[in-house]
Design a protein that fits this description.
The chain has 268 residues and is mainly α. The chain has one domain (2-190). Helices cover 56% and strands 0% of the residues. It contains 9 helices and no strands. The protein has helices at residues 2-28, 42-77, 94-118, 120-126, 146-162, 166-184, 201-204, 226-231, 258-267. The longest helix has 36 residues, at 42-77. The chain is globular. The protein starts with a helix and ends with a helix.
C-alpha cells in the first residue's frame, strides 16, 4: 500500500515538472500564435490538473488497496492463490517489464478510450474532456474523475498478474503524461515518419474535431498512434492543419460551471 501511495507522491512532483516544461514550450514555439496562455476556463483546468493528478490518485490508492484485499479474500474462499501470486514478469529485468507493460497498458487504454466514445453512459463522462474549445497542454487533465476508475478497472488484473515493479509503473506514468501534455499542446509537430508509431499534436487535434470522421470519432491513441493506423481509426488530412471547430455537437448545452461538471453525468 505504501509503495502505491509513494508512487502517487512522486508522480505529482514530475507532473509539475512536465507541466512547466510544456507551458514554456508553448511560449517559445506556439502553433496558434494568437492563442492566449491564460485563456477562458484556464482556472478550471488548473483545478482538474491538481485534483486529477494528485487528490483523485491519493483517494483511489486507498480504494485500490481495499479492493485488492476484497478480491484476495474471495480467492481464498475457493482455496485459490491471489492474482498477484502469478507474478509473470516480476523476476524479469526492469527494462523488459517497462517495454512489455508500456505497450500492453497503452493498448488497453486505447481500447478503453474507444469505449468512452461508443458507450453512451461512458460518453457522458468523457464529454468533459471534449468540452475543450482551445487546445493546450493543460487540456490533457480536463477529464472527469470517473474516467480514472474506468481506466484502472480495466488495467488492474493485467497489472497484478504481470507483477510490474512500482518503479516501472511510475516511469511509464511520467512518460505517458509528457506525451499526453504534448499531444494537447499548442505546438506544431507530427514527429515526421514516427507519426506512424507515436501520437502527436497534429494527430490528436483531429480527435477533438467537432465533426466525427468515423462512427464514434477518430484518433483514439494515447501514446502509440500505431493502434489507430492498424485498426483504421486514424484521420490525418494532409492539406488541412487543424479542425475548424473543437468540441462536440450541442456543446452549448454542456454545463460551464465546475460543480455541475462534477455531477453532470449522474443527473443527465
Amino acid at each position: 500500500m505504501f509503495e502505491f501511495i509513494w508512487n502517487t507522491q512522486g508522480y505529482f512532483f514530475w507532473l509539475l515538472v512536465v507541466s512547466l516544461f510544456c507551458w514554456l514550450l508553448e511560449r517559445v514555439v506556439p502553433w496558434r500564435k494568437n492563442q492566449r496562455a491564460f485563456r477562458d476556463q484556464i482556472g478550471q483546468d488548473y483545478f482538474w490538473l491538481i485534483f486529477n493528478g494528485h487528490y483523485a490518485g491519493m483517494l483511489l490508492a486507498f480504494v485500490t488497496v481495499w479492493f485488492v484485499n476484497q478480491v484476495n479474500q474471495i480467492f481464498s474462499l475457493f482455496n485459490l492463490a491471489p492474482p498477484e501470486s502469478l507474478n509473470l514478469l516480476g523476476n524479469m529485468p526492469l527494462g523488459v517489464q517497462f517495454i512489455v507493460y508500456f505497450i500492453f497498458s497503452d493498448f488497453i487504454e486505447w481500447c478503453v478510450h474507444n469505449l468512452l466514445h461508443r458507450i453512451s453512459f461512458l460518453w457522458e463522462f468523457h464529454k468533459l474532456h471534449h468540452s475543450i474549445r482551445e487546445l493546450d497542454w493543460i487540456g490533457n487533465f480536463r477529464f472527469h474523475w470517473m474516467e480514472i476508475i474506468v481506466y484502472r478497472s480495466f488495467k488492474y488484473l493485467p497489472l497484478v498478474i504481470l507483477g510490474i515493479d512500482h518503479r516501472v509503473i511510475l516511469w511509464i506514468a511520467i512518460i505517458a503524461t509528457l506525451i499526453g501534455h504534448l499531444n494537447h499542446a499548442n505546438i506544431k509537430t507530427d514527429w515526421g515518419i514516427f507519426r506512424y508509431i507515436f501520437n502527436s499534436p497534429r494527430l490528436h487535434v483531429w480527435h477533438h474535431d467537432e465533426i466525427l470522421h468515423g462512427k464514434a470519432g477518430q484518433n483514439y491513441a494515447i501514446v502509440f498512434s500505431l493502434w489507430d493506423w492498424l485498426f483504421g481509426t486514424i484521420y490525418y488530412p494532409k492539406h488541412v492543419e487543424m479542425p475548424g471547430k473543437l468540441g462536440f455537437v450541442n456543446i452549448e448545452k454542456f454545463p460551464e460551471r465546475l460543480f455541475r461538471r462534477f455531477v453532470y453525468p449522474f443527473i443527465k
